[in-house]
GntR family transcriptional regulator (Nocardioides luteus), 260 residues
Amino acid sequence: MIEFHLDGQSGISPYQQIVTQVRHALRLGLLREGDQLPTVKDVVSRLAINPNTVSKAYRELEHAGLVTARAGVGTFVTATMSDDTLAAQRSLRAGLERWLAKARRSGLDEETIEALFQSTVRSSAVQDIA
Amino acid sequence: MIEFHLDGQSGISPYQQIVTQVRHALRLGLLREGDQLPTVKDVVSRLAINPNTVSKAYRELEHAGLVTARAGVGTFVTATMSDDTLAAQRSLRAGLERWLAKARRSGLDEETIEALFQSTVRSSAVQDIA
């Protein structure tokens, strides 16, 4: 079952972090149709956040057609993202792990790694469009 | 001069996006001590956001000791992040560009690339601690 984690330094609201983590887990094939999300009660006890925050995130995911709440039972994934890229992701992940190890060995801290990634994604996406 | 961009899909507040973009530009050596930030008026006219949003971001950056507002003149960078990794960043950026090109050729969309990056950063950081 997915375990949520909150980054208090990110400037992203806890509600949005939960939504993004479910969306990303679907993209990475870590969540599939029929999988159950942790109950609101479980998330509240693990992360010490307001139950309304969790409910709001789950409602948004339901509104997006990704999960369905079954009264008294729980919230279940109702969509599986395309599997097309899952095999490619394994090799890409290995390449990225090597890149990250090199970046850390070069002395880059996590904020600089994040900055370099965002900057490179943006500049190479612009080139692709041009 | 730095040009801010806002991602309306990110779930991150515009104020936080401006703060992060300045911090990242400092990390990447794109902003240096003495550089001027765009005036609040310029940012408002370019991005169509509330002037209070820009002022709040600039105040937070000033509070963090990264910039200083000079009344009637503008806001200037007062800190330069360590240059230690700037040379390494060039080679790392080239490696990341190759990885991104491969990921896009493999059919990964931008959200999946972001998901794969965040997931790999988290899992490899955990390994480093263990």
